[in-house]
Design a protein that fits this description.
2 strands, 113 residues, elongated, 5 helices, two-stranded antiparallel ribbon, mainly alpha, 6% strand
């Protein structure tokens, strides 16, 4: 009889874990929807990329400014999004570890020459 009780307890524990997991997933989906609504409501273009420069997400304004439709997915890697060589070099410098200030100072100096 003890093994049946243990199986019942295990089943109840698994059901409780499943219910908590569903709740957490629901919370995450709600937060994601809120963040997406905020980003898509912005007039500024916003692009998020991972440390390797792979584009993770972009809001509607960024997609429009870069010439990509709302259904185009995924966007190219961050350096490929910039057609202007100097801007692309700033992005590459930052991805290699330069500070944004240092990389943009080089860009400003290069573009004013």
């Amino acid at each position: 009889m003890r093994s049946v009780d243990e199986l019942g307890a295990l089943g109840r524990a698994l059901n409780m874990m499943m219910a908590r997991l569903r709740e957490k997933i629901g919370d995450l989906e709600e937060e994601r929807a809120k963040a997406r609504a905020i980003l898509d409501g912005m007039v500024e273009g916003v692009i998020a990329a991972d440390p390797r420069g792979r584009t993770v997400t972009a809001n509607s304004a960024a997609r429009r400014l870069l010439g990509y439709g709302p259904g185009t997915s995924p966007l190219p890697d961050l350096p490929e999004l910039f057609r202007v060589k100097a801007a692309r070099e700033v992005v590459l410098a930052v991805l290699r570890g330069s500070s944004c200030r240092t990389a943009s100072s080089r860009w400003t100096a290069a573009s004013s020459s």
